[in-house]
Write a structure and sequence with these properties.
single chain; about 325 residues; alpha/beta; 3 domains; 6 strands; about 50% helix
Length: about 325
């Protein structure tokens, strides 16, 4: 009977918490909407505005030519914007989607990610996400390459399929980050898979990571397409006016993030991308629990220094006995 009562109380508490959380989220969203409406531009460092700003064929062509620093006949002429869903099981609360996914006319598969806050295990995330992106790109590449294959394959067709079974399309990941990237010392880092001598094992997998905290060029110093787009991404959220650098493609992109031009749908999506997501709530919970555990270890250390019994320390701190013994061993070595 007691267990049933406890279960009912827990269920009731959970419902109350969900109602409180829902009310708090609604209040935060309303506050955030008012804040957004007081600005001139939507902040493209958040997902919704980022996609509105850049997820356009002409804008993407301009941006990618800037990122890859292509000139003349080597410039990308067109891109195909792809569905951002990845058909791979992924260990996240939210559905696994890429921010922007596209394929260029010259066969590059490109993923562009805007990351406002630094997640735990950032490099692991980049690698894991790129693995999913590569598998999706390979699947779609196979569909294109072998789409005309007949049901009864000839030896020639089978040989062709075998020769390309493990061939992958070039896949490039571009990460634009609004936090410091400790592994690089400039605002741009070009990364690839290399051996101990610095030799690249393949040119088909590349990572370009931007650290906006290190991009400090003034408007008067901006010269290239790459610098123009980075300047706008960094400053749009707080700017009273933005330069279009005499470029109509950029001018159109700027108009797409004007608050007065934004549809109700875009405003709602922008609000949701600025209020805490499930993933961010997980991160805050991790920070909270990490703090609790560190405090428990601190208390255990003080109790050990006072020669308190092991059982008492375990009961008081809630730490497992093995962890208390580990702390004791560390103290004994000092």
């Amino acid at each position: 009977m007691a267990n049933e009562n406890n279960a009912e109380m827990t269920k009731s508490d959970n419902i109350k918490n969900e109602i409180i959380l829902g009310d708090a989220r609604e209040f935060c969203e309303q506050q955030k909407l008012e804040e957004i409406k007081s600005k001139k531009y939507l902040d493209p460092l958040y997902d919704a505005a980022f996609k509105a700003f850049l997820n356009d064929e002409q804008a993407l062509v301009s941006f990618l030519n800037g990122v890859f620093r292509l000139e003349g006949d080597n410039r990308i002429k067109s891109v195909t914007v792809k569905n951002t869903e990845i058909n791979i099981i992924f260990p996240q609360v939210k559905t696994f989607r890429l921010d922007i996914r596209a394929k260029t006319a010259n066969g590059l598969s490109v993923n562009i990610e805007m990351q406002k806050a630094k997640p735990l295990h950032f490099v692991d995330r980049v690698l894991l996400q790129h693995s999913a992106f590569l598998l999706q790109s390979k699947y779609e590449w196979n569909q294109e390459v072998f789409s005309g294959a007949s049901a009864n394959l000839s030896d020639e067709e089978r040989a062709e399929r075998e020769s390309r079974r493990y061939e992958i399309p070039p896949t490039y990941a571009i990460w634009i980050c609004d936090f410091a990237i400790q592994q690089q010392d400039g605002y741009r880092g070009d990364w690839a898979i290399r051996n101990e001598k610095g030799l690249t094992i393949s040119d088909k997998v590349k990572y370009i990571i931007y650290d906006l905290t290190r991009f400090d060029k003034a408007e008067s110093q901006i010269k290239t397409d790459e610098e123009r787009w980075l300047f706008l991404l960094k400053h749009a959220g707080s700017a009273l006016s933005l330069p279009d650098f005499g470029d109509e493609i950029i001018a159109k992109a700027i108009r797409r993030i004007l608050v007065n031009n934004a549809s109700d749908t875009l405003l709602i999506e922008q609000v949701k991308s600025m209020v805490l997501t499930e993933e961010e709530l997980d991160y805050l919970a991790w920070i909270k629990m990490k703090g609790v555990k560190e405090k428990a270890r601190e208390i255990a250390t003080k109790m050990l220094l006072k020669d308190k019994p092991l059982a008492e320390i375990v009961e008081f701190t809630g730490l497992p006995e093995s962890e208390v013994l580990e702390i004791k061993a560390t103290l004994d070595r000092k």
